[in-house]
Amino acid sequence: MEQRTELFKREQKWGLNTYLYAPKDDYKHRMYWRDLYSAEEAEQLIALISAAKQHDVEFIYAISPGLDVTFSNPKEVAALKRKLDQVKEFGCRSFSLLFDDIETEMCAADKQAYSTFAHAQVAITNAVYQHLGEPETFLFCPTDYCASFCTPTVSQSSYLHTVGEKLLPGIDILWTGPKVVSHKISVESIEEVSSVLKRAPVIWDNIHANDYDPQRLFLGPYKDRPTELIPKLRGVLTNPNCEFYPNFVAIHTLATWCKASCLYCYLININAFTIISQQLNYIKRQGENKVCHHSLPPSWPLSARLKKESSEEEPMQTDMGESYVPGPDENPLYTAEPLTLNDLKLLSELFYLPYEHGATARTMLQELDWLKNQRSAAAAETDKTAEWCSRAQQFDDMCEAVVQMFNRLSNAPNRSILYDLYNYICDIKSGVGLARHPPSAQVMNNDPEPWGFRGGLSGEFQRMLPCHGNRDLFRHPPMTEVYCIRPYCPEDKVTMADPQMPYYILVKIEQWFHKVLISVLDGGAEGFQGDLTFPLLHCSLLEGEISPSPQCALILEDEIGVCGYALGLTDAKPAAAKIQRAVSDSVLKDFPSLVTIQVLPRVMDSSPANRMIGRLLSSIRSSGSRGAFCELRKSDRRMLDFYTKLGYFKPITMAGLPQDIIAMGTSL
């Protein structure tokens, strides 16, 4: 409660003027929504509402009955009205009904009374809104509050259409954007949902929310929301971190963003799973043309605003008594260095935004990735060794800056901010410590120290899942490679056939790998029923015995050189004849063309291969072909996964193939 009161002071100073109360640590807000507040609880809320009024802040009380309400029971509706009437007696005049994050299946009684879940929610919301006298501010949060929740789409969502058509026009509707935590929110997406809701939405923005990951904090700015959104909206909310003090940047940058309009800046609060309530900034359009006033101009650097925030707190007072003075041969007194602006800048870049690391964090990840990948080369080459050592020292300096930031912040006089930040900065300090001094193979044993492995039970669950790491913000390697797709030329025929060139080596290694893999998995070649020497149709293309069809051969190059190809025959019969394989007429009727594609393992990005196969199939289609097929060994998981993820290649039946070979085709 003390932090909420402090928040009202900051809102008034920054030009924010509304606060929405919906903390989940108040169990009478959600789980026990029917229960009235006790005298002691009422006293706290009355004081909070009064404090909000003293600072010209509108207090909105939100209630979330969706966990177990029976919409068709008049007693339930009466209980909801009675609860809000009590809060109204506390001095509150603005309200919100939230139906987010609940089950969508109605009980039997509600199914008899309402045709859909949306009709049930709209009925109770309209009834409460009218009972309260149609307050000027009344917010409704739908169950489908983002585009990804809508079935099948936003424009075709029967739920949203019902809400838009039946909900009374004085009620504002909350919307989080394309996703629960939206990376970007476009004008076009808002125009689409507005047409369905029959009104402009209020954005409930989770860009700074961190209640879903206890290891993440977001100190980056409010961004990737164009100011062109403003005239398309009824308002914007931002739902920041659970911790109070680190939200200075999130709230202040929203206040700066809203200065681009004639909107009021509102601050709303909603807590998720912690006693410390989160802050939400609610920007609501008003008829009066008022300007938001902020304590610091937006031109001030972020670090300066953070330092001013820190300096507003009283330093921790200590009673040292008589000062100790060490002798000439004794250890000098430890003196804590003051926090610097660079420390605060580093802090914000280490804990930036959900979809983006700050510049320093990105650089550290890229440098560590380079050092790890170039370690072997550095050990063998003198010139590479010097570069590796130089970059290793630079990386170590960046790690040391993190450690020193931790030390200075730990000794900062503002303990309240430190307590909010400590778990996060301690975790990142330990992380860079492991990066600086990774456990060597010699010290790995069955009884390691616990700081050498991270994440507890949750971390072990994640590491066991196949998707672990595939959504890291830092891709491996960094997606900065430039690729060139060019037509196949006669010189490439030599390249393909030359035993010293990448293609030939790749093909021979893969053929050997498939044989070894099959032998190991099937208990030896004797237990394998297929033909290990069975040739694939595209082998004659790879070995240069047959030339690709015109406009049906592409080469992929990166900064190192040739790294991939896509080859095709509009008529697969010559390839079949070359290796004396019979292909049924029924297959060639539907899939007369042959394609093959391969990229070297260093090409980690799938988009170049996607573009090559797209261009190749387009050329084959232009020749009049009605379909194309490819052949793969089942043990070639990499390319099998590639064709499968394309979505339009499907397994086809082809007589005479060994059990370890699969044919896949696509219609053109």
TrEMBL record:
GO BP term, pick one: glycoprotein metabolic process
Annotated segments matching region Disordered: 307-327
MF terms (GO), sorted A to Z: [protein]-3-O-(N-acetyl-D-glucosaminyl)-L-serine/L-threonine O-N-acetyl-alpha-D-glucosaminase activity; beta-N-acetylglucosaminidase activity
Catalytic activity of the protein: 3-O-(N-acetyl-beta-D-glucosaminyl)-L-threonyl-[protein] + H2O = L-threonyl-[protein] + N-acetyl-D-glucosamine; 3-O-(N-acetyl-beta-D-glucosaminyl)-L-seryl-[protein] + H2O = N-acetyl-D-glucosamine + L-seryl-[protein]
Keywords in alphabetical order: Glycosidase, Hydrolase
Record-linked SUPFAM superfamilies: (Trans)glycosidases
Gene3D superfamilies assigned to the protein according to its UniProt record, in alphabetical order: 3.40.630.30, Glycosidases (3.20.20.80), STAT, domain 1 (1.20.58.240)
Pfam families reported for this sequence: NAGidase
Lineage: superkingdom: Eukaryota
Database matches in PANTHER family: O-GLCNACASE (PTHR13170), O-GLCNACASE-LIKE (PTHR13170:SF19)
Protein's UniProt name: protein O-GlcNAcase
Annotated organism of origin: Sparus aurata (Gilthead sea bream)
